[in-house]
Amino acid sequence: MKKFLVVGLGNIGEEYRGTRHNIGFEILDHLAEKEEFQFSLDRLGDVGQFKYKGRTAICLKPSTYMNLSGKAVLYWLQKENIPLENLLILTDDLNLPFGSLRLKTKGSDGGHNGLKDIQKMLNTGSYPRLRFGVGSDYSRGQQVDFVLGRWNEEEAEALPERLNRCSELIRSFLFAGPKNTMNKFNNT
């Protein structure tokens, strides 16, 4: 059975729940609800899994805080013997309009400290990542406050549909692979 590691980036703690920077955690929580699996505390994070069309997806919400996510990613890849092409990182992106999705199989960290640490720990930028657009509606120098801020009313209203779309994308990634998934979902 083919195994995948799906990692939602975020920060642990109530004060971060519902913030833009925690969209990776939100996506996985939504997926867990749809696929009816639970997370439990394990080494370096909360872990859950589900099966989809002959594939096993191990889902991880690292407890290392965003900027040290690479340690948890590397540990679980090695523990489960999962190749890099079967890794999917779920992260926020300030450069994309709210709710837009962009799947890439490699790339730079784009200034994102969580991705920066993952690239450092994996020694490569060649791993799949889903970037969820959180918009850029902030004043110069205020990006930290913006990503650590909560969704506005309009975003919060649109979020459930966007989370459904993310769940569809993840299932497609598991079964159809990154290329077909990019063609179907990018910029939707």
Automatic annotation (TrEMBL):
Record flagged with keyword tRNA-binding: yes
SUPFAM superfamilies given in the database record: Peptidyl-tRNA hydrolase-like (SSF53178)
Keywords: Cytoplasm, Hydrolase, RNA-binding, tRNA-binding
Assembly notes: Monomer.
Binding sites annotated in the UniProt record for tRNA: Y16, Y65, N67, N113
Organism annotation: Aureicoccus marinus
EC number assigned by the record: 3.1.1.29
Protein role: Catalyzes the release of premature peptidyl moieties from peptidyl-tRNA molecules trapped in stalled 50S ribosomal subunits, and thus maintains levels of free tRNAs and 50S ribosomes.
GO molecular function, one term: peptidyl-tRNA hydrolase activity
Subcellular location: Cytoplasm
Enzyme class: hydrolase
Biological processes annotated in GO: protein quality control for misfolded or incompletely synthesized proteins; rescue of stalled ribosome
Protein name: Peptidyl-tRNA hydrolase
